[in-house]
Write a structure and sequence with these properties.
By secondary structure, the protein is of the alpha/beta class. It has two domains: 192 residues, Alpha/Beta hydrolase fold, catalytic domain (Rossmann fold), CATH 3.40.50.1820; 55 residues, no CATH class. The chain has eleven helices and eight strands. Helix 2 crosses helix 3. It is globular, with a radius of gyration of 17 Å.
Length: 265
């Protein structure tokens, strides 16, 4: 089974999604610079056992975008997808999408199981908010500068690599969704781990995953996050970087989402 459809968020925004397979639902929440094709191979690999949903977050791809933006609107978007999926679902969050998935779980969405892959938290966060600078760049039409600002200040890509990426074939796609980097900045804030009162509400079985072959910040973040959540465990994938490697992630997700036990600690 495969279908492309639209879910209506609470504020009327149209959220485009693809549904594959049948079985218990899994919703994939992608990160910055991503649209729903990013998670499509991984979703397809699980479609023989699960009903998988990939969607364009608001402001991207075929989804709408109703101002003003707030993280709460994105939580409502995920709520709409869960309702389409049958009223409850497992959720896989990738990169900043993992932070959105966690905040959604803490807000009380009916999420049965949660996987957070490479959540970009910082163990020692600094009080830096890049939202205003990104918003000014977008307001003045400097979409390329916004892309590079985000790559440098929030992702930590070296200047020499950023210069090389200016000629990458996917650069125009990054600039098309540059306005959503303001949204990402509002979601990321200072990248601090969730406070105890937020973490305590994420009670469903949770797997904090990180690729061990990429930035050392991400395994440290996954490990620290798992310690903070009441029903979570960390898992470091040694030969994977910050990408959705279907061959590695597929079996891990199939085991976790297919598990019958409710407690994993």
């Amino acid at each position: 089974m495969f279908e492309t459809a639209i879910a209506l968020s609470r504020d009327g925004t149209r959220i485009a999604f693809d549904r594959r397979g049948s079985g218990s639902p899994i919703i994939f929440v992608v990160g910055a610079f991503n649209e729903r094709p990013t998670a499509a191979p991984l979703a397809e690999s699980l479609a023989d056992r699960f009903s998988t949903f990939t969607y364009d977050r608001r402001g991207r791809g075929e989804s709408g975008d109703t101002p003003p933006y707030a993280v709460e609107r994105e939580i409502e978007d995920l709520t709409a997808l869960i309702e389409v999926a049958g009223g409850s679902a497992s959720v896989f969050g990738y990169s900043s999408g993992a932070m959105l998935a966690l905040q959604s779980a803490a807000a009380g969405l009916p999420i049965s199981r949660l996987v957070l892959y490479d959540p970009p938290y910082l163990a020692n966060a600094h009080d830096v908010d890049h939202t205003e600078q990104l918003a000014q760049l977008i307001a003045h039409g400097k979409r390329g500068e916004a892309v590079e600002y985000f790559q440098s200040k929030l992702v930590g890509i070296p200047d020499a690599v950023i210069a090389q990426l200016r000629q990458a074939p996917f650069r125009p796609a990054l600039e098309r969704m540059a306005h959503t980097l303001v949204y990402e900045s509002m979601l990321l804030r200072d990248r601090a781990l969730p406070p105890a009162e937020v973490a305590s509400r994420v009670v469903m079985p949770t797997l904090a995953l990180a690729g061990g072959a990429g930035s050392p910040i991400l395994p440290a973040a996954a490990t620290a996050l798992a310690r903070r959540l009441p029903n979570a465990k960390p898992q470091i994938l040694p030969d994977v970087g910050h990408d959705l490697d279907t061959a590695v992630l597929g079996p891990v997700l199939a085991r976790f989402f297919g598990a019958e036990t409710e407690e994993i600690r």
